[in-house]
Please model this.
Amino acid sequence: SGERFNKNSLTAAHRQLPFGPRVKVTNLSNDKSVVARINDRGPHTRGRLIDLSQAAASQLGMIRSGTARVRVQALND
Model:
């Protein structure tokens, strides 16, 4: 999107969603959720659906593991 990456913002990367929309991401192992804005393309690793900023991953309780099974829901603004 041209936006400078900020690990402290609630942002995410997705391969197909347009830049700008917000998504609700829920960690399926602990039911914690976060709302993040799509501002980048990715992830570039096979088998991954979404990449989250450090702030968003922290709110989901997945900093230690690095990955988690999640549900992604597009939000209507």
Summary: The radius of gyration is 11 Å. The helical segments are 54-59. The longest strand covers residues 33-40.
